[in-house]
């Protein structure tokens, strides 16, 4: 899914996954490199306004929304949970989800995954996210700053570890 090849069957010069995979194969047994990504996203109505926000204004200031519960604090939990379940059903290595700082903003965690599997699983999980949101009549954006002003941005945070990092005195490594 994430690789491209030339007509002769060799990796295309833009195929960075191929070279990354060769490196991961060389270090897998000794280092066991694992990656995880925390993917943030924002849910939008068809008009581009954040899902659940008042149409003629803004919700209350940020603060009570992060990892929150309650209908006045979270918008789109059904979508987030449906996405999480669909990823699990598809066999993806997802390890959590939570409401984020800005209302209608969510995060899910993919991984930890060995080597290049992280990128593959992230792409598939994003496809599933867009597909699930479609069922709810909502748009997903990965835009790092979907709302101007003093509203939280969204990103993708990477985590990385090796066998030596997870062993005793791993913090020194």
From TrEMBL:
Gene Ontology MF terms in the entry: ATP binding; glutamine synthetase activity
EC number annotated for this UniProt entry: 6.3.1.2
Enzyme class, broadest EC rank: ligase
Keywords of this entry: ATP-binding, Cytoplasm, Ligase, Nucleotide-binding
Source domain of life: Eukaryota
Location(s) in or outside the cell: Cytoplasm
Listed GO biological process terms: glutamine biosynthetic process
A GO CC annotation given for this chain: cytoplasm
Keyword Cell inner membrane: no
Domain GS catalytic residue range list: 16-173
Main location: cytoplasm
Pfam families: Gln-synt_C (PF00120)
InterPro entries, alphabetized: Gln_synth/guanido_kin_cat_dom, Gln_synth_cat_dom, Gln_synth_gly_rich_site, Glutamine_Synthetase
Family under the similarity heading: Belongs to the glutamine synthetase family.
Protein name, UniProt field: glutamine synthetase
């Amino acid at each position: 899914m994430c690789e491209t090849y030339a007509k002769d069957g060799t990796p295309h010069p833009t195929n960075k996954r191929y070279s990354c995979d060769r490196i991961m194969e060389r270090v897998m047994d000794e280092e066991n490199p694992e990656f995880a990504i925390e993917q943030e996203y924002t849910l939008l109505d068809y008009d581009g306004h954040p899902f659940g926000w008042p149409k003629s204004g803004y919700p209350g200031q940020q603060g009570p929304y992060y990892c929150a519960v309650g209908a006045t604090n979270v918008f789109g939990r059904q979508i987030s949970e449906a996405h999480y379940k669909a990823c699990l059903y598809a066999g993806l290595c997802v390890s959590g989800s939570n409401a984020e700082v800005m209302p209608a903003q969510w995060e899910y965690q993919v991984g930890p995954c060995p080597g290049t599997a992280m990128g593959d699983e992230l792409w598939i999980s994003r496809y599933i996210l867009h597909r699930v949101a479609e069922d709810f009549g909502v748009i997903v954006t990965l835009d790092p700053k979907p709302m101007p002003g003093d509203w939280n941005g969204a990103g993708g945070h990477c985590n990385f570890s090796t066998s030596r990092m997870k062993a005793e005195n791993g913090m020194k490594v």
